[in-house]
Automatic annotation (TrEMBL):
Molecular function in Gene Ontology: oxidoreductase activity
Superkingdom of origin: Eukaryota
Signal peptide region: 1-19
Family membership noted in the UniProt record: Belongs to the short-chain dehydrogenases/reductases (SDR) family.
Protein name per the record: Retinol dehydrogenase 11
InterPro entries according to UniProt: NAD(P)-bd_dom_sf, SDR_fam
Source organism: Ladona fulva (Scarce chaser dragonfly)
One of the Pfam families matching this protein, by short name: adh_short
Record key words, sorted: Oxidoreductase, Signal
Amino acid sequence: MVSCSTVAILSALLGLILLRKYRESRWGYFKCKKSLQGKVFLVTGANSGIGKETVRELARRDACVIMACRSMSSALSAIEDIRRTVQEGTLIPKQLDLASFDSIRAFSNSVIRDFPKINVLINNAGVYVCSKEARVTTDGYELHFGVNHLGHFLLTNLLFDKLCESQPSRVVTVSSLLLQSGKIDLENLNCERETPESLAEMRSNQKYCNSKLANLLFTRELAKRTTTVDVTALSVCPGFSYTNLFRETPRSWYQYILFAPIVYFYMRSANQGAQTVLLCAASDEIGKQHSGQLFRDCKVYKPKLRFPCSSATQSKLWDISTEMVGLRMK
Ligand SMILES: NC(=O)c1ccc[n+]([C@@H]2O[C@H](COP(=O)([O-])OP(=O)(O)OC[C@H]3O[C@@H](n4cnc5c(N)ncnc54)[C@H](OP(=O)(O)O)[C@@H]3O)[C@@H](O)[C@H]2O)c1
């Protein structure tokens, strides 16, 4: 005989599983299995998390993927892992450190030389560091701003002519809804000036939020500046996903227990996080009419509040970034 308590426990477990399945169904899934043979995709941060799963799914559809990774050994391990499940597609590892303008220039030159076209550039790589000491890139920029925004800004600009030659082409930049807590202070982009709220901001990683807002403003401004060419600029929030992003965030055992329910209901696998990136990169239903939009859960994201920035700030951020990375204004 099955006791009442056993029935109650089993019903509760079933309820939890169904609730999780319901949430997963709301996140959306890129179902299209159409072949991407002949198309070239470039993914930054392709060795880990959302980037690696994006590569896996593109390869499954027979695409050619340039995997831009900081470490070649991590790139080769990622390829080994992908090849355990997917044999299709062409995977080409290449070294790129987004924290160094020299590395970005060398990488871009070799891509321009070796590949006749790039159909889709996926600016995915990102850092999230909670550190008391200011961390900077090789060129002296605050790490989040330097890698997440400036690195991708320079890369996209250097590859822009190639993207134009490959029309129709796309630039997909991975942002985050944490951008809603972001601030763009044009006088203090590099976070050199300490402000009274700096300590509290450090706890919530204000610098990461700012860089993700910069990712969205970059996408919007790119869309504004590319109306005469068939290059589509899109931004994505992949959702809270189980990846290596928070590897430098210290956690104690009780935090694991406290956050377990949140993780169960809200955290996606890296593959689930990659679905909206894939939709923006490969769906035939996405086109120029979507340029400048932010996507989440496999659809256009409609914010409840206006995003915290004006189009004048967006345009100035572009001009200042151009100077910071040492490009000439067009
Ligand atoms: N996970 C989430 O919950 C979440 C939520 C919203 C948005 N996002 C965004 O999703 C994107 C992908 O992150 P993820 O969650 O997949 O994290 P991840 O597993 O840590 O992947 C980040 C990737 O970026 C690479 N990277 C970091 N610094 C780099 C540099 N200087 N040069 C080149 N590559 C560099 C990493 O390379 P190494 O392995 O060599 O460090 C890694 O391949 C990021 O833009 C992140 O902001 C993530």
